[in-house]
TrEMBL record:
This is Oxidoreductase. PANTHER family: 3-(3-HYDROXY-PHENYL)PROPIONATE/3-HYDROXYCINNAMIC ACID HYDROXYLASE, BLR0106 PROTEIN. Keywords: NAD, Oxidoreductase. Coiled coil: none annotated. The keyword Transmembrane does not apply. It comes from the Bacteria. It comes from Amycolatopsis acididurans. Residues 7-324 form the FAD-binding domain. Pfam families: FAD_binding_3 (PF01494).
């Protein structure tokens, strides 16, 4: 499709990047970015760019990526729990200041011939353009005013973004117990000698600390100073004497946005305007910039607007929905994170890496052999082999109370062991249906049940959720926990054992 005029709403990473790529692909096109804010007045701290995203940006626009990498800060990742540390290597992960990210993208967009207009709020219907690209963020006015079939899911946990004026040596995941409950920071360094501190907690802790009664900041640009000063004391060790910096910093809940349609007429949504994925696994910047690549390719390869927008959505939606599902699982894991603090930090790191089913146990072992070897020795009481880890995990013996099991695959229930079976297929183990199951499990234990066996659908998403449900029962109710699944998903079952989600596994009859 030959595009003569294109209007881009939003001067964030997605808007600037799609404008540049479109101008490079179709130099005759008049591309204008309309950003309601003023230049150099962005808010936010650091942005992470993972290795996979960097590869895609390099293929699409190597010049821009080169400047982003040069401005970024590489770092590894460390988890610290009660003074114990687990560190994993990840030298392709970079953090970059959001201000620097936007400066690089703005410079490259203008170099390509894109015009950028600041300071005026515009709407999609105002433009005499062939296409309008709405990259106007999670609170997109374009999406709200259009016919895109928007739905929003609100997370249970609360979080805020802040920063500090020093660069951490690694990304940090640190939970801290307080008199009010547990606060967790996800902190990482970025360019300019600064670090992002993302801090989250559950609602009970948030209320117990009195944050529900804190005065509202007077102006939209103000931060919640009461919370910042409190959290400085909580994370004093990690801050090393530095203060927490706010930038419109307030407690909020994550909004997962989904749209039934990403386009309507000549208007198309991009990035957070079309979809969001939880920050613990899905970067809005990543998804927006990859959307930009897909949209510009579709515009080049299709004859008209309708066909191009349809191709863009057809191409991008599977990847986005996969990321949203991974992010949903990750969000649920982090919202329930304090329940896991009794297991060793190395096993907790394995649980973290395998929480969404995106990183298999053997792949994690290949990149972080020391951490995984320690976790496996904690699990089994014996040093693991160099290969065939999944089979080794399943073959380890278990002593539970007075009962001994020769390996972790339960083929028959020993005499005298009473297991209650739950054949539940829940979407969220921590919702009201999950609460009801916890109540039934407690009643079963009072009635003499020694433990529980969890079974259900044999597809992978169902098994991953079943492992989460089993973990919740194991933590809150206790007893011997057995999770059933197909032999084809042995790797997921093995990861569940090492992560403390269950004690034993069983295999479906057709797979034994």
């Amino acid at each position: 499709m030959r595009v003569r005029r294109a209007a881009v709403l939003g001067g964030g990473p997605g808007g600037l990047y799609v404008a540049r790529l479109l101008k490079l692909a179709q130099p005759w096109c008049d591309v204008v970015v309309h950003e309601q804010g003023e230049p150099d007045k962005t808010f936010g701290f650091g942005v992470g760019l993972a290795a996979g995203t960097q590869r895609k940006l390099e293929a699409a626009d190597a010049d821009t990526l080169r400047d982003l990498v040069a401005a970024g800060h590489r770092h590894d990742m460390t988890m610290v729990v009660d003074g114990r540390t687990a560190r994993v290597h990840n030298d392709r992960l970079i953090g970059i200041a959001r201000t620097e990210l936007l400066a690089v993208l703005q410079r490259h967009a203008e170099k390509a011939g894109v015009r950028i207009e600041y300071g005026t709020r515009r709407s999609a219907g105002e433009f005499d353009a062939d296409i309008v690209i709405a990259a106007d963020g999670v609170s997109s006015a374009t999406r709200s005013a259009g016919e895109f079939g928007e739905t929003t899911e609100l997370g249970r946990g609360l979080f805020l973004w802040c920063g500090a004026e020093f660069a951490l040596p690694d990304a940090l995941f640190v939970p801290v117990r307080t008199e009010h409950g547990v606060f967790v920071t996800h902190a990482y360094p970025y360019s300019g000698g600064r670090s992002t501190f993302l801090i989250e907690t559950d609602e009970q802790t948030w209320r117990s600390a009195g944050f529900d009664r804190s005065p509202e900041p007077a102006q939209p640009e103000d931060s919640d100073e009461t919370s910042l000063r409190y959290l400085e004391e909580v994370f004093a060790s990690e801050l090393r004497g530095h203060a927490l910096i706010g930038n419109r910093t307030r407690w909020t809940r994550f909004r997962t946005v989904r749209c039934a349609r990403w386009s309507h007429g000549r208007t198309v949504l991009l990035g957070d305007a079309a979809h969001t994925a939880h920050f613990s696994i899905g970067s809005g910047t990543k998804l927006a910039m990859e959307d930009a690549i897909g949209l510009v390719e579709a515009l080049a390869e299709e004859p008209d607007v309708e066909a191009a927008f349809a191709r863009y959505e057809t191409t991008r939606r599977p990847s986005v929905e996969r990321m949203q599902e991974l992010a949903r699982r990750s969000r649920l894991w982090w919202e329930s994170f304090p329940s896991r603090l009794d297991i060793p930090v190395e096993r907790l790191m394995v649980a973290y890496m395998t929480r969404a089913g995106n990183v298999p146990l053997d792949r994690f072992a290949a990149t972080s052999p020391d951490v995984v070897a320690t976790a496996l020795e904690q699990y089994a009481g014996a040093a693991p082999p160099a290969a065939d880890l999944v089979d080794w995990v399943l073959e380890q013996p278990l002593r539970h109370g007075k009962t001994e099991f020769p390996h972790r695959i339960l083929r028959h229930v020993p005499d005298g062991l009473a297991l209650t079976t739950f054949a539940e297929n829940l979407a969220d183990p921590w919702d009201e249906a999950g609460d009801d199951l916890i109540a039934r499990a407690r009643e079963a234990r009072r009635d003499g049940a020694d433990g529980f066996r969890f079974t259900g659908l044999t597809d992978r998403p169902a098994l991953l959720t079943r492992l989460d449900l089993a973990e919740r029962v194991r933590s809150e109710v206790g007893g011997l926990i057995v999770v059933n699944g197909p032999a084809s998903l042995r790797a997921d079952l093995a990861a569940g054992l090492v992560s403390g989600r269950c004690d034993l596994v069983s295999l479906t009859e057709e797979d034994v």
